[in-house]
TrEMBL record:
Belongs to the glycosyltransferase 9 family. This is Lipopolysaccharide heptosyltransferase 1. Pathway: Bacterial outer membrane biogenesis; LPS core biosynthesis. It catalyses: an alpha-Kdo-(2->4)-alpha-Kdo-(2->6)-lipid A + ADP-L-glycero-beta-D-manno-heptose = an L-alpha-D-Hep-(1->5)-[alpha-Kdo-(2->4)]-alpha-Kdo-(2->6)-lipid A + ADP + H(+). Residues 320-341 are annotated as: Disordered. The gene is waaC.
């Protein structure tokens, strides 16, 4: 294997959690070039990965919404760039029409994709020369690693290595005078994934009492209003300005603690090795969450909404022992959670 393309187009959390595939491929095939294909919105994530050699991206989401000529030209240019490289294998771990089209356009002789019943859109099956079956015995993130490993004949049984390097800001995003930052990611695009406002208020007050500078990010007017509702009852908390994805990543990188619902930025905190608590309400924390001993944990889910006491207990857990050093973050997904969920 000389050159491999990995395709994971969206969304933020999924693209982040797929990054360990790159380190796996580099270990399995020394000297291999690994490129990545994704939507332009999430290209920064792949660019942050020191193991990714080239990122192919296009404004797919934006073109779908606005149908602008400039975006069409950008997509056309990205196709030319994609076809300039010869891939020994193309691994589509997304499984929808847009990812399948990218795979097909490479003209590679080995294009791997899921079996029809496992695809997000079954019509995507036209693009593949080889099929793989998603692993069901592990969580979603380890499953992506194992699926690629099974297809190419190696094992992905070492801890996940994200290898993300966030560019440093010219000056601190938030100047707290040395007070540790706790970020509360309360916002999510789906209402049923949200955690009640009064519980966020209680956690914000608790963290302030523990000496944290509590900060609330937001990305839309409605999310800003939700943050203001928390701050009305916990005025010690800090409403952040609207920040870019890169600026939020820089702030996460500078933080001491991240507490968030099932959102891409909480997954990024885990990937960056931060002390992280993820709160699940409707989706499975076992299938979609993160666990790393004494550093990152996911609680709730499957219709069970965590209490304030359970979240505080989880915060205590991720602060109970220093995380292991050595450059590799995350833990094998097969490992049983060390806290009750």
């Amino acid at each position: 294997m000389k050159r491999i393309l990995v395709i994971k187009v969206t969304s933020l959390g999924d693209v982040i959690q797929a990054q360990p595939v790159v380190a796996d491929l580099k270990r399995a095939f020394p000297g291999v070039v690994v490129d990545w294909a994704c939507d332009e919105v999430f290209a920064d994530v792949a660019l942050w990965n020191a193991g990714v050699d080239r990122v192919h991206c296009a404004p797919l989401r934006r073109f779908k919404k606005a149908r602008r000529w400039a975006d069409f030209k950008a997509i056309f240019a990205s196709i030319s760039d994609l076809r300039a490289h010869r891939y020994d294998a193309v691994m589509d771990i997304h499984g929808v029409y847009k990812s399948a089209i990218i795979a097909f356009l490479t003209r590679s002789a080995r294009r791997y994709g899921y079996h029809s019943k496992n695809l997000g859109e079954q019509g995507a099956a036209f693009a593949y020369t080889d099929r793989f079956v998603p692993r069901q015995d592990v969580n979603a993130w380890q499953g992506m690693r194992d699926t690629v490993a099974d297809a190419l004949g190696y094992r992905a049984d070492s801890p996940a290595v994200y290898n993300l390097r966030i560019p440093q800001p010219a000056q601190p995003i938030v100047d707290t005078g040395g007070v540790p930052i706790a970020l509360l990611f309360h916002a999510t695009s789906k209402d049923d994934k949200k955690w009640p406002t009064d519980r966020w208020v209680a956690v914000a007050k608790e963290l302030h009492q523990r000496g944290f500078h509590v900060a609330l990010p937001w990305g839309s007017p409605s999310e800003r209003e939700e943050a203001l509702k928390i701050i009305e009852q916990a005025p010690q908390a800090h409403l952040l300005p609207q920040l870019s994805v890169t600026a939020i990543a820089q702030l996460i990188d500078a933080s001491a603690l991240v507490v968030g619902v099932d959102t891409g930025f909480a997954h990024l905190a885990h990937a960056l090795g931060k002390r992280t608590v993820m709160i699940f309400t409707v989706t499975s924390s076992v299938h979609s969450g993160n666990q790393a001993p004494y550093r990152s944990t996911s609680i709730g889910g499957d219709g069970v909404v965590p209490t304030v006491a359970e979240v505080v207990e989880a915060i205590d857990y991720v602060h109970s022992s220093p995380p292991a050093d050595g450059g590799e973050v995350g833990s094998p997904a097969r490992m049983e959670s060390a806290v009750r969920s």
